[in-house]
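Q&A FORM
Asked by: J.P.
Topic: structure of Major histocompatibility complex class I-related gene protein-like

PROVIDED:
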Amino acid sequence: MKALIGLLLLVFGHDVSSVIHSLQTFETASSGLSTFPEYVTVQMVDEVQVEYYDSNTQRIITKQDWVDQANEDKVPDYLERVTERRKGDQQVAKANMGTLKKRFNQTGGAHIVQTMYGCEWDDEDGTTEGYEQHGYDGEDFLSLDLTTLTWVAPVHQAFTTKLRFDHDRAYNQYKKNYYTKECVDDLKKLLAYGKSTLQRTERPQVSLLQRSPSSPVVCHATGFYPDRVVVFWRRDGQELHEQVDPGEVLPNHDGTFQVSVELYLTAVPQEDWGRYECVVQLKGIEDISTPLDPAHIRTNGGDNHILAFILTGVAVVAAFAVVVGVFLYQKRNDSEKCHKPVDSDTSSENSEGQKLAPEYQPLSTGQS
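REPLIED BY: S.T.
REPLY: Here is the structure written out as tokens.
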């Protein structure tokens, strides 16, 4: 979602005044992955990790000091209660894994069931948005449409679950109330407790990097916070939409962020490089403009800044994938999956309505 927003900003203009805050929970159940816990939950506020739980430790680990105070003020025995809920969700997720393996006619191999749910709040116009999405083995499986209070089943194996959830109107109304009110209220309270951390502004360090004379010049901004940054190249004061390749905003180990935007100059003589500049825009600070001066470009020679930058980026991405990547649907090779069709309309109930196979179950979203 944020990558799309970033692309639109590059094309249609830049606005860093409004901030969209988020409270998100990512749950992952896995099977056949010996080096990964069978169940993991990560909760994040404005993309900052605040809570972690996995089936190995079976306890909530808070990642921010201010979260402890916020939780205790909300519910005195919050950690104990939420830990018990996570243990229950762990059992539900394990059962769901078994259900989906039967639905997709699978036995062995590595499989992943993932759920992403949460809410967003725009601090400028007050608009909110809630969502709940389920995935299986790298594909969308089920999602909630809060407008119609119905469930969307993109694959036929999810159709019986969709019908069952659609008929539970009380449950769907509870979901709407949670995502549009309770979740947003919790988000605002957490933002208040974590204001000094979440609403701070840290100025980026900007460098120009180039691997070799024939490589693109990289404008690399790092150490900034929050992550709502805009980085672009200009020529003669006009923003470039061609010759550039914008990258994604990535997290650093210290909670700040980094991003790179490449500029391709193969057809531009070096005497014209002075017409180019990299611009970084971040709410709360003046625009940072860095002229394209060959003398200030770090290359692969000497101190190997470029190599260090690349290795650091790879390490950051790897670490982020382990901690936060639980909500990124794992893409699997089609040859590792068995797509034999299952008649979902008849595999769950017989003519008398008796259950013949376990059903995909909801998790205890928002309950404490």
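FOLLOW-UP: The chain has two domains: 18-197, 205-323.
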